[in-house]
Write a structure and sequence with these properties.
This protein is an alpha+beta fold. The protein has two domains: 80 residues, Ubiquitin-like (UB roll); 86 residues, DNA polymerase, domain 1 (Orthogonal Bundle). The protein is 41% helix and 12% strand. A five-stranded mixed beta sheet has the order 2-1-5-3-4, sandwiched between helices. α4 packs across α7. The longest helix is centred in the first third of the chain and has 35 residues. The radius of gyration is 28 Å and the shape is globular. The protein starts with 10 loop residues before the first helix and ends with a helix. The model has no long low-confidence stretch (mean pLDDT 89). Bound molecules: FE2/S2 (inorganic) cluster (2 copies). The site of one FE2/S2 (inorganic) cluster has 12 residues, from loops. InterPro entries: 2Fe-2S-bd, 2Fe-2S-bd_dom_sf, 2Fe-2S_ferredoxin-like_sf, 2Fe-2S_ferredoxin-type, 2Fe2S_fd_BS, Aldehyde_Oxdr_Iron-Sulfur, Beta-grasp_dom_sf, TAT_signal.
Length: 218
């Protein structure tokens, strides 16, 4: 016999209660998804905000009008048609989009074009010419530092900057003595090039090409 006030919970009642609470929990996300969808569609219907951009690319001053959301990578490829710079991951993880910005290597997919107002950018097209390759480009060709070639522009831009960093005495994670001038050892070069992924696995030939330019051993 049940005590007074005690609720008799049958299996059927329990199932009903469960269904009711599941509906109550599910309702708010559905409502907020609808709201988010309507916010997104009203944002999509607004015209893009554009801004004039002056930027020096490979020695030429370029004047563009870009959507404020345009990355430097897309400005180079889509606006200036410099397609040597490659889009790999578009998330800063592969290094295919590496260019030099004011002399420093930069993942161009990770910076907005409008953040580089007035900057000086060098892409693979600006490093050398067909008739006169940059020594790093010539070394990659000589040592087969590629297979499909998709990562190669980023690898070469990075490698040129890596040797500059070493010449400037900038230490890396593997520099044993932070006060000593770093040398272009295999370990230093491999560490500094670790942000440039090669899906073809041409790493050993890339290392040989860089070592030749550095005058060191791979
Ligand atoms: Fe920029 Fe991969 S495309 S890091
Ligand atoms: Fe193909 Fe590097 S050469 S991804």
């Amino acid at each position: 016999m049940d005590e007074p006030g005690e609720i008799m919970i049958t299996r059927r009642n329990l199932l009903k209660m469960g269904a009711a609470s599941a509906t109550a929990i599910a309702a708010p996300p559905f409502a907020s998804a609808q709201e988010a969808k309507s916010d997104a569609s009203s944002a999509a219907s607004r015209p893009p905000v554009t801004i004039p951009l002056s930027i020096e690319v490979n020695g030429e001053v370029e004047h563009l009008e870009v959507d404020t959301r345009t990355t430097l990578l897309d400005a180079l490829r889509e606006h200036l048609h410099l397609t040597g710079t490659k889009k790999g991951c578009d998330h800063g993880q592969c290094g295919a989009c590496t260019v030099h910005v004011n002399g420093r290597r930069t993942n161009s997919c990770l910076t907005l074009a409008v953040m580089q107002q007035g900057a000086s950018v060098t892409t693979i097209e600006g490093l050398g010419t067909r008739a006169s390759l940059h020594p790093m480009q010539a070394a990659f060709v000589k040592h087969d530092g590629y297979q499909c070639g998709y990562c190669t522009p980023g690898q070469i831009c990075s490698a040129v900057a890596v040797l500059d960093e070493i010449r400037q005495g900038i230490p890396s994670h593997v520099s044993a003595d932070l006060t000593a001038r770093p040398q272009a050892t295999a370990a230093e070069v491999r560490e500094r090039m670790s942000g440039n992924i090669c899906r073809c696995g041409a790493y050993s030939n890339i290392a040989v090409a860089i070592a030749e330019v550095a005058g060191s051993k791979a």
